[in-house]
Amino acid sequence: MNLTNHFLVAMPSMQDPNFKGSVVYICEHNDEGAMGIVINLPIEISVGNMLDQIEIERELPVRDPASLEQPVFNGGPVSADRGFVLHNRVGRLSSSIDVTDEVSITTSKDILSLLGTSESPDNFLVALGYAGWDAGQLEQELIENVWLTTEANADVVFNTPVNERWNKAIAQLGISAAHLSTEQGHA
């Protein structure tokens, strides 16, 4: 099983406060474990304010200030002081790792100076921290019915309003969130 480029959608029974009501975009999944970014839990700071606080120096002028008004996300409980940027693929960012033909991820500060400028990726999501699972841990959580999985959709990551991402990810499965039980079990 490889869940790279899939969403993990927290079941209503999820009690872990780090993941309750969350949608996690899985960036990597292999025999050693999994890594993902929570895409629907914003924190109380905009990208622009964060960039001001860390005093990012820009070589290019900001041309799209509205793009910097989007929130920064709580990407997960691991390395919460470290930034991650999910973005559409662009040619100039050599430090990015391509997850798919549409989505890349980077931890390099280089991208931060480009956000909002003419060289910015068209779509980006900035998160602090990530979600991580050791080998076999995610698979065990799936057996325990903690998560639903569905193939990821870049439109949900970048263009769907934050408060609609969980429902939209559930809808991709062809089911309504109203039909999900808060009880765990196996049939």
TrEMBL record:
TM segment ranges: none
> Which SUPFAM superfamilies has this protein been placed in?
VC0467-like (SSF143456)
Q: What InterPro entries is this protein classified in?
A: AlgH-like
For this UniProt entry, what's an example GO CC term?
A: cytosol
Read off the Gene3D superfamilies from this record. Answer: VC0467-like
Q: Which domain of life is it from?
A: Bacteria
Family in the record: Belongs to the UPF0301 (AlgH) family.
Stored HAMAP family = UPF0301
Q: What is the protein name for this chain?
A: UPF0301 protein RJ45_06100
